[in-house]
Specification:
CATH topology: Ribose 5-phosphate Isomerase B, Chain: A
CATH class: Alpha Beta
Largest sheet: 5 strands, parallel
Helix content: 40-55%
Shape: globular
Order of helices and strands: EHEHEHEHEHH
Strand content: 15-25%
Strand order of the largest sheet: 2-1-3-5-4
Structural class: alpha/beta
Number of strands: 5
Number of domains: 1
Number of helices: 6
Length: 160
């Protein structure tokens, strides 16, 4: 799979680790920067190119990394066709009474792919270890979009 990576200084170390990890797994990686550790860099300079690349190549995915992940997701979501989500740690299990998901732990990574067909994952390097990031990235990459009509309809509404 083609995967675009981008980070600022706060995510630089994690990006480099993930780049190596994903390459070892056989993925085609394109790094959009940062290419060196510079505490004065600005995340939009590296995140927007990732989002634009993913939007231009719908079968690809993007992983963007910053300290908290929020600004990175906001930046990516400004590009039409991008659906970025933030991951900053395992959520608490929540029961939804009356739902088909009752008594099932809600997994934001699985839901982001199955329901929302998220194509950019924003990781919070300030909250996630490299080991956890590898596990999450693998789960996110391996989870397919469900393709259910209601989810397609909702995504179409987002993209118009």
């Amino acid at each position: 799979m083609k995967i675009y990576l981008g980070s600022d200084h706060a995510g630089f170390e994690l990006k480099e680790k993930l780049k190596s990890y994903l390459t070892q797994l056989g993925h085609e990686i394109e790094d959009k920067g940062a290419f060196k550790l510079d505490p004065e860099d600005d995340y939009p300079d590296f995140i927007r190119p990732v989002a634009e690349a993913v939007a231009a190549r719908p079968e690809s995915r993007g992983i963007v990394i910053g300290f908290g992940g929020q600004g990175e997701a906001i930046t990516a979501n400004r590009v039409k066709g991008v659906r970025a989500i933030v991951y900053y740690g395992e959520p608490q299990a929540v029961s939804q009474t009356g739902s088909k998901r009752e008594d099932k732990a809600r997994d934001v990574i699985l839901l982001s792919r199955e329901d929302n067909n998220a194509n950019v994952l924003a990781l919070a390097a300030g909250f996630v270890s490299s080991e956890e990031a590898e596990k999450i990235v693998m789960r996110w990459l391996e989870t397919p979009f469900s393709g259910e009509p209601r989810h397609r309809r909702r995504i179409d509404k987002i993209d118009t």
